[in-house]
Amino acid sequence: MTKILYLMRHGQTLFNILHKNQGICDSPLTQQGIADAKRVHEYLQQNNIIFDHAYTSTQERASDTLELVTDQPYQRLKGLKEWNFGLLEGESQRLNPPFDSKLGSVGNGYVQYGGDSADAVQKRMVKTLTNIMIQKGHQRVLVVGHGASIYLFLKNWIPLDELLNHIELRNCAILKFSFDDETKKFTYLETINVN
């Protein structure tokens, strides 16, 4: 039987507005981020979308978003955390390593600053989300996470050209996937933007 994953990016934060890196560091949701998450809550109610399980990263901006979207119990998982940007945490995004269009990321660019490689984050996200979805009774699951780590997860399942040119990952965007228990593969279905 096909399972469905709703993978959502957290609401807008103060560091999003200031264009600062927030990987393992955190900043609070803005009033816009709170309002957008409440709109997602309304959308889910209006479309009778009910989850049997919900998960979030251990970071406050993600768990705060999830609590605005649904009042059901949830589990926090370290495997869903954002990319660690090392010494560039909290710094201007202008200081980031250059994006490599062939790789579709900065590759090992943050490693020199004590951060994670893109491959390490991608493997962690694929493993964590697969481990969530293979569990019994996990037919329709909500996961709230972070922009860069979700992007790297997407990169594992979607051709790079399509990802770069056709998928927009706004704050509070929901990426809908099907998951096949036998092959353990995710298939991207659509992006839901309510803001």
UniProtKB/TrEMBL annotation:
Q: Which PROSITE patterns match?
A: PG_MUTASE (PS00175)
- Residue sites binding substrate per the record: R9, H10, G11, Q12, T13, L14, F15, N16, R61
Q: Name one GO molecular function term.
A: phosphatase activity
**Which top-rank group of organisms is this from?**
Bacteria
Q: Which Pfam families match?
A: His_Phos_1 (PF00300)
Q: May I ask which residue range the UniProt record assigns to the signal sequence?
A: none
State the SMART domains in the record: PGAM
Recorded GO cellular component terms are: cytoplasm
Q: What name does the UniProt record give this protein?
A: Histidine phosphatase family protein
Species: Companilactobacillus pabuli
